[in-house]
């Protein structure tokens, strides 16, 4: 039961990657529309677009971190954490 909950939690955390892709598309779309409406502000809107990309990508990088935390922190009481754990390096542990 714990394994299923960990898998569901990690899967739910990775849904943020799809949200980040949608967010990047929105930022790019807004940047293109703003330059098309007022080309003289292209340099300023480019800076805002880069800031929007950076913030959206930060969310996308937090999603795999949360998935790894969910899958590695919530272990059963029988398992103890080791660097060569079976969940990270299955070939090293026999």
From TrEMBL:
The chain crosses the membrane at residues 45-70. The keyword ATP-binding applies. GO terms for cellular component: mitochondrial membrane; proton-transporting ATP synthase complex; proton-transporting two-sector ATPase complex, proton-transporting domain. One of its GO terms (molecular function) is proton transmembrane transporter activity. CDD domains: ATP-synt_Fo_c_ATP5G3. It is found in: Mitochondrion membrane. SUPFAM superfamilies: F1F0 ATP synthase subunit C. Its main location: mitochondrion. GO terms for biological process: proton motive force-driven ATP synthesis. Gene3D superfamilies: F1F0 ATP synthase subunit C. Pfam families: ATP-synt_C. The keyword Cytoplasm does not apply. Keywords: ATP-binding, CF(0), Hydrogen ion transport, Ion transport, Lipid-binding, Membrane, Mitochondrion, Nucleotide-binding, Transmembrane, Transmembrane helix, Transport. It comes from the Eukaryota. It is a multi-pass membrane protein. InterPro entries: ATP_synth_F0_csu, ATP_synth_F0_csu_DDCD_BS, ATP_synth_F0_csu_sf, ATPase_proteolipid_c-like_dom, F/V-ATP_Csub_sf. Residues 8-70 form the V-ATPase proteolipid subunit C-like domain. Belongs to the ATPase C chain family. This protein is one of the chains of the nonenzymatic membrane component (F0) of mitochondrial ATPase. F-type ATPases have 2 components, CF(1) - the catalytic core - and CF(0) - the membrane proton channel. CF(1) has five subunits: alpha(3), beta(3), gamma(1), delta(1), epsilon(1). CF(0) has three main subunits: a, b and c. This is ATP synthase subunit 9, mitochondrial. It comes from Actinidia arguta.
């Amino acid at each position: 039961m714990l394994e299923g909950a960990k898998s569901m939690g990690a899967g739910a955390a990775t849904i943020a990657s799809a949200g980040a892709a949608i967010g990047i598309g929105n930022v790019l779309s807004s940047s293109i529309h703003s330059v098309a409406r007022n080309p003289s502000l292209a340099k300023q809107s480019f800076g805002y677009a880069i800031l929007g990309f950076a913030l959206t990508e930060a969310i996308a990088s937090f999603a795999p971190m949360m998935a790894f935390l969910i899958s590695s922190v919530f272990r059963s009481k029988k398992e103890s954490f080791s660097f060569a754990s079976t969940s990270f390096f299955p070939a090293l542990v026999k």
